[in-house]
Amino acid sequence: MFTQKFRFVLATGILALSTGCGSQSKPAAMVTGAVTLNGEPFNGASVHFYNPEIGGAAFNLNDNGYFSSQQPIVVAEYMVALDRPGPDTGETPADTTWPEDRSGDIPAMYRSSSKSGLIARVSTGTENHFSFDIKGQPSKKKGEAGPVAFDPLPGAGS
What we know:
CATH architecture of the domain at 25-134: Sandwich
Number of helices: 1
Distance between the termini: 73 Å
CATH topology of the domain at 25-134: Immunoglobulin-like
CATH superfamily of the domain at 25-134: Immunoglobulins
Strand content: 25-35%
Structural class: alpha+beta
Number of strands: 10
Order of helices and strands: HEEEEEEEEEE
Mean pLDDT: 80
Radius of gyration: 22 Å
Helix content: 10-25%
CATH class of the domain at 25-134: Mainly Beta
């Protein structure tokens, strides 16, 4: 009886060690970068890194057009797009502020990660600094409503 219990405990321990107890982490790295629009620093937007297999992350641009991750992101190749900025969170919910939204100034092609042509290859052991110089005219005219996140489904509405 002791031998059977011992084998069970030993087998369970080996199985737990071989699977890493269910917590295998992927390599990750910090990222920084800058965005310019027609050669000038751009702000009032966020940079979105997206990989269809692992998801992504978004980083607000500061007043000088720079961004940086607050935590490492998974090492991978990402498609990149620009969109509205997210909230700047503070220590409490009351400290949360929304930066100026200049996403209407982003040329339309750069709003889609599949159409922008912007790629970021995040790797270990390198600086992971990305500079994106986007070119073109704003996707919205001054005074028009801001961007729409999704087109309505066919047949939706009236």
